[in-house]
Amino acid sequence: MTKPAYKRVLLKLSGEALMGDDAYGINRATIERMVADVAEISRMGVELAIVIGGGNIFRGVAPGAQGMDRATADYMGMLATVMNSLALGDAMRQVGITARVMSAIAIEQVVEPYVRPKALQYLEEGKVVIFAAGTGNPFFTTDTAAALRGSEIGAELVLKATKVDGVYTADPKKDPTATRYTTISFDEAISRHLQVMDATAFALCRDQKLPIKVFSIVKPGALKNLIMGGDEGTLVHV
Ligand SMILES: Nc1ncnc2c1ncn2[C@@H]1O[C@H](COP(=O)(O)OP(=O)(O)O)[C@@H](O)[C@H]1O
Ligand SMILES: O=c1ccn([C@@H]2O[C@H](COP(=O)(O)OP(=O)(O)O)[C@@H](O)[C@H]2O)c(=O)[nH]1
Question: Are the C-beta atoms of residues 15 and 81 closer than 8 Å to each other?
Answer without folding.
Answer: yes
